[in-house]
Write a structure and sequence with these properties.
Elements lengths: L9 H22 L10 H54 L7 H22 L14 H51 L3 H28 L9
Amino acid sequence: MNLSINQPSSALNFIERQNKEREEKDEKLASGKRINSATDDPAGLQISSRLTAQINSSQQESYNVQDQVNINNVQSSGLGAINESLQRANVLSIQSGSPLSDPTAIQGELDQLTEQINAVAGEVLGDASFISGLDANDPAATQTALEDALASVNESASALGAQNNALSSQVSTYETTRVNVSESRSRIEDTDYGETTSEKERLNVLLQSAVVNKKDEESRKGILINKVI
């Protein structure tokens, strides 16, 4: 709205103030935020800033814990692969006790399984010599070594499972905190669309009335006012 007059007046000042307030309502409706600058609500902005920091912290904590869960899942997958290889080696060790078995062929597969197991164990357990001594000619010793290895793998898998359960609970706690604090921040800084729209309509009525009155007043004084809304 542009008004052209010869001198300022209280009526014009009123119109300018109301127009500025209406523009502020438009900004709040456009942004969805009740607080767009410190002038809107200094105390509210400080609280909102603290809540934002808390939200960001909870989000990052959740990411950090989830990263550990992902690492544990990779380790669990590796332990699963080791377990499968150990189970196959156990079958071979029993098969080697048969008089119809071929110890050379069985030993070749046992050696291959040993290499595979130790390669994975080096990555997930930090032990590249996790198992050794699998001998097709000594089934009893081989089964003892396999039982010990399986017990170790199962213990590690159980520990990872328990840790992941605890970590998942932490993630849930961080996410719940983030959601709750986000809702609190929204109540402080978000625009109440119904209230703001109603206030804007009230300002429109006041502005229209003030402009008409001002125009009538200045018309009586012979001064032209151009109004653009």
